[in-house]
Amino acid sequence: MCVEFKSVVMSCFDRHQHWEKIYQSKSLDEVSWYQPSPATSLDFLKQLNVPLDAKIIDIGGGDSLLVDHLLKLGYTNISVLDISESALDKAKDRLGEQAKKVEWIVADIAAFEPSQQYDVWHDRATFHFLTQEEEIGSYIHSAKQAICESGVLVIGTFSDQGPEKCSGIKIKQYTEQSLPVLLKRFFKKIKCIRVNHQTPFNTIQNFVFCSFRKVQMV
Asked: Is CATH 1.10.443.10 the right assignment for the domain spanning 3-214?
């Protein structure tokens, strides 16, 4: 059964079912992207001087611990988006009463139509799962629509030295050069770095992390 995004048939892979199965069968520390402390993401937010009342959306946040750390730091306007409702339910259960302070959005980012704007769009390890041109274009369009004037985009993807597949899915690799070129129409690069992520299985995955400022359209 093919998945349709905005009435265009783009893939015969059921992305929703795939991620539901993973989050229903694996615990937090049994997935390769698990990290007890999202140090790189938090460092980017600190360097960007993101205020505590900034509207932040975490794309593909699932049941990652970034939202926990943001709440502890005092951030008050957080949204977490994921295709898997099971992943978000796990995060809500973990946070307990704190979960009520967060907006939880179940959506496929390849077809996401934002209803509001955000100061910060954060994405660690979601964008590289989009390999088709139409999906990538849809993602960039959604980011452009969702990020407010002078807002920022922080994105981490597998580098050209990273894995070619993750969770059984082929991914698209990026470099410090290719990612800014792809986004340059709407976003101006602030900085890019490379980071090694150690998985729970003691393997190393190389990421490219970049920050961007939304370009003001004349």
From this structure: no
